[in-house]
C-alpha cells in the first residue's frame, strides 16, 4: 500500500509561535500561569503543557481567587471585552494570538469604523469568530455558508474565519454582491490553511483512503476532513494512531495522510508507521 503524507501537514507558523511562547512562559514561572482555553486544539500538546504547570481555564471567572501571574492568549485570540476585563483585573496578558487572526480582527474593526455592516464567514461558536465579532461593531452578522444569508444592509464588508476555504468565500461574495450596493471584501484566509487544503484535495483525488489527523475540536482539521468527504473518498478523522482500524484499508492500494495546523509531527509519524504496519500485514 502506497502511503503519501501531505507536505504541509502539521504545525503551522501561528501554532509553532504560540507553543514556543507557552513553553517559554511555563519554563520561566512554574506556578500561576494559565491559558485562556487550550493553547491549541490538540489534547496531547495541552496535556504536555499541563504537566509543566500551564493550566487552561475555560472562562475568566475561573481565575477569581487564584494567584494569577499571567494569562497566555491562544492563537484564536479573545474578545475585546475579555481583554478589557483582564486588564481591569490587573492580569499580565501574554498575547499568542496568531498574527493572521490579528489581521482579521483589524479588518473587522476597520470595516465597522468605515460604516460597513460586517459579515463574517465562519462558525459563530468558534473562539476566533467570537473574537472577530467583538471587533466588528454592533451590526455584525455571521454566516456559516452562503446558502442562508441574513437580511443585509446596502453597505456590507466581509471578513472570513482564517481557516475556512476560498471556495466558500467566493460563493459568499457572489451571493452578497447581488443584494447590496457596496461591498468590500478582505480575504483574511490564512495562506498556510489555503495551501494545506489545496494539497490535501489533490491527494484525496488520487488515493483510495484519506486519513486526517488532529483534534476533533480543531476547526481546520475538521475542514480538511469535510473537504475530503466531499470529493468523495473514504475519510477517517482520527486523533491518534490508536484510533486506526485495519478494516479501513482492506483492498486499498493507496492512502494519504494529512493533518491540521495543531497536530504535532510525532503524531503524524506514528500514524504513518501504524498504517505502514497495517499495509504490511495485508500483503
Ligand atoms: Fe494562524 Fe493560520 Fe495557523 S491563522 S494559527 S497560521 S492555521
Q: Key features?
A:
12 strands, binds FE3-S4 cluster, alpha/beta, flat, 4-stranded parallel sheet
Description of the structure:
It is a single chain. By secondary structure, the chain is α/β, with parallel strands linked by helices. α4 runs parallel beside α5 and α7 packs parallel to α8. A four-stranded parallel sheet has the order 1-12-10-11, with helices on both faces. Strands 3-2-4-5 form a four-stranded parallel sheet, sandwiched between helices. The protein has a four-stranded parallel sheet with strand order 7-6-8-9, sandwiched between helices. β2, α2 and β3 form a beta-alpha-beta unit. The model has no long low-confidence stretch (mean pLDDT 92). FE3-S4 cluster binds next to α1, α4 and α7.
Topology:
Layout: E1 2-5, H1 13-28, E2 33-36, H2 43-51, E3 55-57, E4 70-73, H3 80-88, E5 92-95, H4 99-113, E6 117-121, H5 127-135, E7 141-143, E8 155-160, H6 166-177, E9 182-185, H7 191-204, E10 209-213, H8 219-229, E11 235-238, E12 254-259, H9 265-282
Parallel strand pairs: 1-12, 2-3, 2-4, 4-5, 6-7, 6-8, 8-9, 10-11, 10-12
The structure holds FE3-S4 cluster.
Residues 12-15, 75, 98, 100-101, 162-163, 190, 192-193, 220, 261 line the site of FE3-S4 cluster.
